[in-house]
Amino acid sequence: MFAIVEIAGLQYKVEQDQKLFVNRLAGDIGGKVSFDKILLTVNGAITVGAPAVSGITVEAEILNHVKADKVIIFKKKRRKGYQVKNGHRQSLTQIQITGITGFDGAKKETKAKKAPKTEEAAAE
What is the role of the protein in this entry (predicted)? Predict the structure, then answer.
């Protein structure tokens, strides 16, 4: 079972107990957050929202607030003596998906495979 959820303007494919980094979220470490803009769910059957699936939420726990690696921006114009070097570190939040709630609870049932016919059964 997984879902495509929009978090802070970006779309993520999430599953139960998955850890991921998203753009900085307001909240304390150890706090709970929930996301209700679910674009697609797969729980045996595929449900596509138009634009979002209603009644389903994704619950997550904030594990940490971190900064990403530095990104260097370097601009240069040749033969003109123009060089500019800038950089920045993106603020990220590490979250762990604790659950996807709101499904009807129906799980996909697998059909039992029929035993192949044997020659003895065919002869009788």
Answer: This protein binds to 23S rRNA in the presence of protein L20.
